[in-house]
Predict the structure of Protein kinase, putative.
Amino acid sequence: MDTLLYPCVRWVPDSEVDSCTKCSSKFQKLSFKSKHHCRHCGKIYCDKCAPLQPLPNGTPWMKYNMTQARKCNACQLPRIFQAHRFYGENTRLDGGIVELIMSFLDDRSVARLQQSCATMLRQFPVPNVPYFESLQARFPTLFAGAQIGRGACGTVYKVEDWDGSKVAVKVVEKARVYSYYGWRKLFGEIEIMRGNEHVNVSRILEVFQTASHLAIIMELGEGGSLKRAYEVVRKKHYDMEVFTANVVGQVAAGLDYLYHTRKIVHRDIKHDNIVLSKDYSRVMIIDFGLAEWVRDDYKQKYVPCGTMGFASPENIQAVVERKTVFQANGYAMHESDLFSLGVVAFMLLSGSKPLRGQRFTEQHAEVRRGLRCSGPRWQHVSDRAKHIIEWLLVGPTIQRATAADVVQHPWVLDSIHKFSAIESDRIGEIELEDRMEGDEWVFVANQMRITEEWKMIEEDEWCDDAASTPPGDADPSTPGGRTPGGGRTPRH
């Protein structure tokens, strides 16, 4: 322990760890993997993750006649870049130094710094974001079973905060953000969500990072995604028109706020990016990964994007014409979001897609012919519902319905008074769901406690003293053949 380079570092005992800190490979008796301490951070690694390094002259280890010492890959970075490393109980390096250095670098230099080594890529220090030692240090209830969604950028978990409230935590693995351009896109998404102050738009509550992850804490739509809510409404035989009108009106209000107040276009409206409260009375727009700022009302360049089947005619035409970028004004992109909202409403009421082509050329032809709410699936849908949906699905943006047209449409306004029937029925369902969820949390807590007990037993079996004790020398005062430390008598 006295051969550590930094006295404040905690030397991790062998009995506390049964796997490599980095690669998680198990230290089993038959695996021939040995435990090795990093002389910089005191943590335990396998031979591959903490290789021997030659010692420079003048280090404190020279008095022990040591010419080599183990150094984990994370400690290969200069200490000023190790803001994530915790030393002692409450001590860690100040991240202000590396943030100051990065503030003088342009994007290309920061990108080169990120790509300088594998450790820097995996543990990139995000500027102006506080550190926690681990995800569980901030949210003890975050575990694999709490996952509610997964995307290209990260995994979303439903967790309970210290005050008992439920929140959504989006965990981004730093190693999967391969370039600084990817980080800039992520920073942009965080910046967009930080300023959201509308009931129908999800907002960020907190952002923190660990050595290898970035965590974004957001408001939770406890009712789940619109896709999930649709299945519940269909199964419970609720009035689908009233439910759809409630969703369409609130999403339109959120899109109107984003464009006219914050100058933002979402660009990926679909079922998965709309969530609801438990009683379905509140609807929120989420996932701003493709969202963009509208710099002015004049034309600016946009990259064609969106989800196939929900993409607007403006994006479809750019793809058909094989354009990597196209020019459009902010209002046209705002109307593109409203077209996608029309697709969502069409699918909720008919159970089918308005754009059925498997290729963008086929979908482009469908839009030019005009999209209509007709056929056997629409026989029991009101004319007012068909009117607003067809208005949203108009090809030319100048003729398409605006957000104000949607919010003030009689079909949407009438649903406000009729929605109370669905809301009251959902309240009864919520009480049952809360009881079931409470039982799940108790089960998880018990499983975590049992896991910790077995872990303690397994660690006791690994103790050198216990392993060297012959069967006949076990303590007779300990009943049941268990060692005084609580572990089982080791087998030989």
The chain has three domains: 14-76, 135-218, 224-426. Residues 224-426 form a domain with the Transferase(Phosphotransferase); domain 1 fold (CATH 1.10.510.10). The chain has 15 helices and 18 strands.
